[in-house]
């Protein structure tokens, strides 16, 4: 791995070499290997001029929720992560075609690994959450199929649909407001609208209780590490 990094730092990297680095540092863009976090500062330095390095560094950050990787990442490479955040944010301001990639990378940098792992563009997003009152697994749909909660029957599909109640902009706070403001800043209207539903309320199709979608999803999917995102 150090030899390959030295080659790309020397400006002699071919496409095959970049593919080999991907395989060695972040398998299929999701699984870290020993040495991934140690390579992060060098990749961030390379990312100033190499898009491939930026992509690999982003994948490493998004994958760092496993075991103690996230905690180590913030403790060992704070300056590299700060620079990576600035670079990704500048890229998002250009409204690239792969906008969601950068959005999810920033979420990971903020320690929001659960959202970074699952957030889509709300064209046809589905989330499963447990009703906090009766424990029914409720399917939440946000996108082209509608905005609703339902019970999913694998033969009949989504049954007993109930309309979601989007959060108003004034109701958004914390990470929900941060996500919304970022999407609005960069003209991502569908993403911004979807976030209001994700941060809104759903009705359970069994017991008719109303709960906040994001609260129940986050409670069930927060990573085990106690992270210290940059402020």
Task: Produce a short descriptive summary.
The protein has 231 residues and is an alpha+beta fold. 49% of the residues lie in helices and 17% in strands.
Describe this structure in words.
The protein is an alpha+beta fold. It contains 11 helices and 8 strands. It has helices spanning 2-9, 15-25, 36-46, 51-62, 69-76, 78-93, 99-109, 113-118, 174-185, 189-198, 213-221, and strands spanning 26-27, 31-32, 124-130, 137-143, 146-153, 157-163, 201-203, 210-212. The strands form 3 sheets. A 4-stranded antiparallel β-sheet has the order 3-4-5-6. It has a two-stranded antiparallel ribbon with strand order 1-2. Strand 7 and strand 8 (210-212) form a beta hairpin. The longest helix is centred in the middle third of the chain and has 16 residues, at 78-93. It is elongated. The model has no long low-confidence stretch (mean pLDDT 90).
Into which percent range does the helicity of residues fall?
40-55%
Number of strands: 8
Helix-strand sequence:
HHEEHHHHHHEEEEHHEEH
Principal-axes shape call: elongated
List keywords for this structure.
alpha+beta; 4-stranded antiparallel sheet; two-stranded antiparallel ribbon; 11 helices; elongated
Which helices and strands appear, and what pairs or packs with what?
Layout (H helix, E strand, L loop, with lengths): L1 H8 L5 H11 E2 L3 E2 L3 H11 L4 H12 L6 H8 L1 H16 L5 H11 L3 H6 L5 E7 L6 E7 L2 E8 L3 E7 L10 H12 L3 H10 L2 E3 L6 E3 H9 L10
Antiparallel strand pairs: 1-2, 3-4, 4-5, 5-6, 7-8
Helix pairs in contact: 1-3, 2-4, 3-4, 3-6, 4-6, 4-7, 6-7, 9-10
